[in-house]
Design brief:
The chain has 613 residues and is mostly helical. It has 25 helices and 5 strands. The chain has a 5-stranded mixed β-sheet with strand order 2-1-3-5-4, covered by helices on one side. It starts with 11 loop residues before the first helix and ends with a helix. The relative contact order is 0.11. The model has no long low-confidence stretch (mean pLDDT 89).
Length: 613
């Protein structure tokens, strides 16, 4: 059994991650080259900016069915990862001398350009740190750990967070299997390069004017990137792919859009995004619809529909069949309904992400954070960029794409989670529209541009803090341990439990960061969404019984302790102030200590010890 930290080696792990990224870059280039769409992509962006995004998504689309249907073993995953590393080494050796080709980035200097370059470099450095956030240490890393340890895709109904997973977690597995835990964050960073490439469009230095730089700053100075980039949440990747599709539909002519290989690529990008997260289904469907209307005008609609059906079937149906088998969903439901509402607790999961909750219903948080500790969960001043755009009243295309953005924002507000990061996709679309049409030369634009530069400067300071206090954890084992103790959710708790539990233990964890555990661990996220004494929980309790857990880990206020105390044996270990509410954000509360408890668990008495006690 391995945990997220077991095969991670400081210095080597970031290096392996970078090599894998170069391997993916080459894979993407080859896909583009073989498909003969490089000249088409050049009309949207330089190919080098899109190859990593294309390589990541196409590779995920290929291996996803093998993982879902359990046609794989650990050697299959390692072979793919090692192949990427070998290709990455070759690419670096062959192209090392071509580094000078990027000197155009430094051909002239301005304060805006310095802010831009420092932001990009800083965000890159943030990707090289260890994984610390709670979401990532829960299912974003936990699912890859499960796949690696058990060589199978989960078939447990009680693992309620598993339903939120998708191609991103499968992609994460490729890095985590070799201890390259920076790989997910570097994949996230590839989306930033993709969007920058679309904005610049061409490589010549004449295109990198201050006007282009300021538009890019609207995006890369967004506080939300500090939250997303260093994490294992593969969300930015699909924002980048959607930005590419959006720009292609806007910039390309009917002939380019009608090429078979390009239609295939676009459908792979859209279908994979839908499989990744329900919130991307809205934008992807709207983009697919626009492409469909173009196909009618270009008289290739039959071909477009046929290709779409084939690609979507290959990418969407494996997960749909899995949902039918595990959650007893109907065929139509499994395709169009993201969550099995027929099962107890899953509606509570949906409500937890779709209700107003912590952030409130009025979306001020898109621009401004709810409070200082949550400042990295806002999109920032770039959200106002649309008000600085040059509007061409006679441009039907502009009106159509503005309607597209408005419709997506409306649907996200109705059906999507109430937090800013789910509005990142239309946020980027608006920035791209401004990039295509330019900004007004008026007082508002000047004030907004100056404010965004100041925002960028502030973000640089925050990034420097992150690099010093988190990225430094990749330098050596001692520093890494110190960094994780201060910033990784649950690290100290699991460090303690790992030290006292026998290696053959089977543990139920009531803490989210179960990927830190070194023993076989059953995630206890189901306890957050159900009343465990409700008889509808019997199915979940019987599933847990089959796994034969013999220990359970509590912390803080010992959640659900009273509900399951009929199943508990002796207190095996207790440690006062074992952990604190570790956070990456310096403005969050980090001094709140909690105790840890490990009890014997009598699994043979389930479910009666809960339902009848």
């Amino acid at each position: 059994m391995i945990g997220i930290n077991d095969n991670t080696i400081p210095i080597l792990s970031p290096l392996l991650s970078i090599l894998m990224i170069f391997g993916l870059h080459y894979f993407g280039l080859k896909i583009i080259e073989i498909s003969k769409i490089d000249k088409v992509i050049l009309k949207v962006s330089h190919v080098n900016f899109q190859s990593l995004m294309v390589g990541s998504i196409v590779l995920t689309a290929i291996i996803q069915p093998f993982i879902i249907f359990n046609y794989f073993n650990i050697y299959f995953i390692k072979a793919i990862s090692l192949f990427l590393i070998v290709i990455g080494i070759i690419v670096l050796l062959v192209n090392f001398k071509n580094i000078k080709n990027f000197q155009y980035l430094f051909e002239y200097k301005s304060f805006k350009k310095i802010v831009f370059l420092v932001l990009v470099l800083g965000l890159f450095l943030l990707t090289l740190g260890p994984i610390t956030d709670a979401d990532s240490l829960d299912y974003h890393a936990g699912i890859p750990i499960y796949i690696i340890n058990f060589e199978q895709y989960s078939d447990h109904k009680f693992w309620i967070h598993f339903i939120k997973s998708g191609p991103g977690e499968i992609l994460n597995t490729l890095g985590i299997v070799l201890g390259a835990d920076q790989f997910p964050a570097l994949v996230q960073f590839s989306a930033i390069l993709s969007i920058i490439g679309i904005t610049l469009k061409k490589r010549s230095s004449s295109m990198i004017s201050d006007k282009k730089i300021i538009i890019i700053l609207f995006f890369i100075s967004s506080p939300i990137l500090i939250f997303l980039v260093p994490s294992a949440k593969i969300q930015l990747l699909y924002v980048g792919s959607s930005a590419f599709v959006f720009s292609s539909l806007f910039l390309l002519n009917k002939k380019d859009l009608g090429k078979n290989s390009f239609i295939i690529l676009i459908n792979i990008l859209l279908a994979t995004a839908i499989a990744a997260k329900f919130s991307f289904a809205i934008g992807s469907f709207l983009l697919w619809l626009i492409y469909f209307f173009n196909s009618i005008k270009g008289k290739y609609s039959k071909k477009y529909i046929l290709i779409s059906v084939i690609i979507f079937s290959f990418i969407i149906l494996p997960k749909a069949f899995w949902k039918m088998n595990i959650y007893d969903m109907g065929f139509i439901q499994s395709i169009f309904i993201p969550i099995p509402f027929n099962l107890y607790g899953y509606e509570a999961l949906y409500n937890s992400v779709s209700s107003c909750g912590y952030y409130g219903c009025f979306p001020y948080w898109i621009i401004f954070p709810k409070d200082l500790p949550g400042f990295t969960e806002a999109l920032g001043l770039g959200s106002l960029v649309i008000f600085s755009m040059k509007f061409k009243k006679n441009s039907l295309k502009l009106k159509l794409f503005l309607l597209l953005v408005a419709l997506q924002i409306l649907l996200l507000k109705i059906f999507g989670p109430n937090n800013a990061r789910w509005f990142l996709e239309p946020f980027v679309w608006l920035i791209l529209l401004v990039s295509f049409f330019g900004q007004n030369e008026n007082k508002f634009s000047k004030i907004l541009n100056f404010s965004v530069i100041l925002q960028g400067f502030g973000i640089i300071i925050v990034i420097m803090y992150g690099v010093i206090n988190i990225t430094s954890g990749s330098l050596n084992t001692k520093i890494r341990d110190n960094v994780l103790e201060k910033t990784a959710s649950g690290y100290n708790l699991f460090k303690w439990s790992n030290s006292v539990l026998p290696k053959d233990s089977i543990l139920i964890s009531t803490h989210r960061s179960f990927s830190l555990s070194k023993v076989k661990t059953i995630p206890g996220d189901i306890f957050f969404y159900i009343n465990i004494k409700d008889h509808r929980a019997k199915t979940y309790l019987e599933e847990i019984k089959e796994l034969k857990p013999n220990y359970i880990l509590f912390y803080k206020d010992k959640k659900i302790f009273n509900d399951i105390k009929g199943c508990l044996g002796e207190l095996v270990s207790y440690k006062k102030n074992v952990g604190s509410m570790a956070k990456r954000n310096p403005f969050g509360k980090q001094n709140e200590k909690y105790d840890g408890y490990i009890y014997k668990f009598n699994y043979s008495q389930l479910p009666d010890c809960v339902l009848k006690y």
